[in-house]
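User: Some background: our group keeps a shared notebook of sequences we're curious about, and every so often someone picks one and asks for a predicted structure to add to the entry. Today it's my turn. The entry only has the sequence so far, pasted here. Could you supply the structure so I can complete it?
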Amino acid sequence: DAVKPLIDGKLITVVGHGGEVSKQIVENDSLVVWQHEQLGTGHAVEQAAPILKGVEGTTLIINGDTPLFTTRTLERLLKEHKEKGHDLTVLSAVLDNPTGYGRIIRNEDGFVKEIVEHADASEAQRRVQEVNTGVMVYSNKLLFEGLEQLDTNNVQGELYLTDLIKLFKSKSLVVGASIMDNPIEMSGINDRVQLADAAKEMQRAINRKHMLAGVTIEDPTQTYIGPYVEIEPDTIIAPGTSILGVCKIGSDNYIGPNTYLENTNIGSKNNIISSYLTDTNVGDNNELGPYLKTRANTNIGNNCRVGNFVELKNATLHNGVKSAHLTYIGDSEIGEQTNIGAGTITANYDGKNKYKTKVGKNAFIGSGTILIAPIEVKDGAFTAAGSTITDDVEEDELAIARSEQINKPGLAKKYRKNSDSS
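Assistant: Of course. Here's the predicted structure to add to the notebook entry:
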């Protein structure tokens, strides 16, 4: 994602061991080429030769296990490569503790002379704090011409991209290094600990970006926001909230605590408390939660009140709808200003097919009503509490569908007496 805004040509991903999983992740955004044998970094880049060899332009190479590089850092690298006329530019970092990293060795003119791996470095070279991040920019033609001249005369028997530096220097080509501002971006991922560390840094960076843009995050250490989320200023995010997928959130909302949003659009001036919303669109001025769950193409209009153990699935609630308690509304459309009483259920599934429930505007669905779909309750109609509604209800009608109550005098007393004697 950091690379895509910078590319006006081809984006190529080289995959190898375990590549089927990687291929599924990237194939919609890039060309995928295979490195069937893992024979070094130079060999990996060689796999793109049928696509790129002989092409004019610049090639940026970045390792796939370093997800923290930002567009800003890579853009600065490309700009410096172009402005200084380098044939190869290495992205470098200065570390307090460079142990384990390849050292950037510069000549008296400040150009890169070589990269020396830590194990091969002399004591003087190990004192160098500038290290190789693994990100490089090449003149494309020179890159693939150079790869053809590399050999595997090393302990590992592999082709190394870093060997191109000596080759370029032998041809009097210009090799430079651009020092990055934030070395933490170079962090790689080789185990679950490093994965957690990288996720934490990404969380910190994303939250910081939103806060600088005017979003209040009450506890950034307990708030998780994905990279494809847009939030307008003056929205407040409470602790324990996760906002993932593609989300657009307006201004002046209060979201959380302990709320999950995924692929959901939120308008403005909403309170969303301790709820779980996926694939949902929410308008303005709504009171949602606590313990609301929405899913599967649900739409909530403006000025609605929904929550306290309510589930919405593939449902549209128009403006002013109230459904405040213990309700399931599935495959339904509810008209404006309608009230859905506690314990209402839309029985939308017969074991094979799903059916739609439609309730008009200004209707009143009594507590404990079961609406057996397909069914329509029209504008202004009422259903009595405890009713099981199987037929359509016309405008302004009251539907009562429940068994007649029968009271048996003294029977409770007799029951208690029998219970006591036993």
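Suggested note for the entry: The first helix runs from residue 19 to 26. The first strand starts at residue 12 and ends at 15.
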